[in-house]
UniProtKB/TrEMBL annotation:
This is Inner membrane protein YphA. It is found in: Membrane. Keywords: Membrane, Transmembrane, Transmembrane helix. It comes from Sphingomonas dokdonensis. It is a multi-pass membrane protein. InterPro entries: DoxX.
Length: 152
C-alpha cells in the first residue's frame, strides 16, 4: 500500500469512527437506552426500533462502504443526510429556552452538538465532491461507483 493510500484509509476511518464502531456498538450494547432516546422523537416503541435499525444500518453498512471504498460516494451522501437529520431531530437547541440566558445551559450545549453534526455531514459531502475540482459531476454520473481511494 502506498503512503497516499494509507493516508486515505486513516482519514476515511477518522471521519467514520464516531459511528463505526462507537455509536453502533453503543446502540447494540445499550439497545433499550437507545430505544428510549429514539422514543423522545418517535413515540411508538415499534417506530423507535425501526428508526434505530435504520440508524444502525447507516452507521455500520454505509460507514464500512466509505472505509472500504465501495459505493463510497453514495454511502457518504447517506451518512451526510443522517448527520443533518439527527442534528434536526435530536439537537434542538432552539427549544430549550435558555440559549441566551445561560451560557452553560442545555441550549448552548445542544447548539454546539448541532453544529458538530452539520460539520461532520459537510465532511462526508467533501468525500462526494472531492478536492480535485471535479465537483459533483462524477457522483451525478455514477452515484454508486467507487471513488477508488486506494488506487485502481
Amino acid at each position: 500500500m502506498t503512503t497516499a493510500a494509507i493516508a486515505a484509509l486513516v482519514v476515511r476511518y477518522g471521519i467514520v469512527m464516531l459511528f463505526l464502531p462507537f455509536s453502533a456498538f453503543d446502540k447494540i450494547f445499550s439497545f433499550d437506552h437507545a430505544v428510549k432516546q429514539a422514543q423522545q422523537v418517535f413515540s411508538p416503541r415499534s417506530l423507535a426500533i425501526a428508526v434505530l435499525m435504520v440508524g444502525l444500518f447507516v452507521e455500520i453498512v454505509c460507514c464500512a462502504a466509505i472505509v472500504i471504498g465501495v459505493a463510497d460516494r453514495a454511502a457518504a451522501f447517506v451518512v451526510a443526510g443522517y448527520c443533518a437529520v439527527t442534528a434536526l431531530l435530536y439537537k434542538q437547541f432552539w427549544k430549550q429556552g435558555d440559549f441566551f440566558a445561560d451560557p452553560g445551559g442545555k441550549g448552548r450545549t445542544l447548539f454546539w452538538d448541532f453544529l458538530k453534526n452539520l460539520s461532520l455531514g459537510a465532511g462526508f459531502l467533501l468525500l462526494i465532491v472531492g478536492t480535485d475540482g471535479s465537483g459533483l459531476q462524477p457522483f451525478l454520473d455514477a452515484p454508486f461507483a467507487s471513488s477508488h481511494p486506494y488506487g485502481r
